[in-house]
Amino acid sequence: MRTNGSPVVVLAGARGAAGRMHARIHRALGHRLVEFDPSGPPPSGAALRRIPWDEIILDVCTPTSVHARSLAWGYARGVRRFLVEKPAAASLAAWQAQVAAMPDAQIFVSHPYLYSRAYLAALDAVPAITELSTTFDKDRAADDTAGRGAGPDGQLPHLFQVEAPHQFAMLLAAVPGLRVSTATIDNIGTRGAERDAPVAGTVVLEDTQIDRAVLATDLRSARRRWLELRNGAGARASVQFSTTPDRISRVWATDRQGRERLLFEEVDDLLRYTMVRAVDSFLRDGAVPAEASARFGSTVLARIDEAIVLGEQRRLGDVPVSAPPLTTVA
After folding, report:
1. Could you tell me the pTM of the whole model?
2. Residue 226: beta bridge partners?
3. Which of 155, 188, 196, 309 is the most exposed place for a label (fewest CB within 10 A)?
4. Residues 44-54 pLDDT 10s
């Protein structure tokens, strides 16, 4: 798996914003990197000379709608180790079909916030969680106009496939039984060439062991990445994830008497932490961790699919009496 002591990473989708971020981290970690886009020419023979394809890690940073195609491209050439950006695919059905077609593949689905030191500190501060809420806002007007993240057909990803996968992953890692009860698209705007596209929404998730979980995201607001956890004993932890180049995240803990203290204020380079964990799982651990597994990726996609269906039904005035049946995750 190693050439000159470093793992070999083929980066699919190198020209996109996610690809550029991944490339920066791979280089900083000393990985041998080959960059290309599946829609363009394949890596040259010189770039991969004497490196068997089954010894390569394929890092998939292509648009969500072509993740499955990118995986298939690598698998057909002998790649068996994959790192996939969030969300894993455009739908649960597309993801499950692709995973089934790759029975001997190791797939690490990247939900970076699960490796955030601030997130882990908040979980430790609030045992037996009974209430969760998370808000991820980001003004993506310029990105949408430029078509960032759009598939080959020019279609931008749905509102709940942009920032919300990070939030779904955090909520489901903390309370695995959560499922969507209601989803609302709060307002409509223009996203690039798409008219009347959803730009803001709220999702409510429920489970027997908690009172409530709320996810909010807005693609036309100032950047904010926030998580709050509470429990029945009155403990609360509030997380402000880094949105600045210094990568400083903060966690405040509040006790039942309302006394607040700063619990964590440190560099939280979560993408780097995720890359290290992914490569370690391939090179040393021999298995992908549960929170990065294809199965957990399926669970996240199932909840995203539910939110999209319920949100669009409500937006169009066809509000269901109850949430759709629980989606099966294989």
Report:
1. 0.91
2. 135, 240
3. 196
4. 555 555 666 66
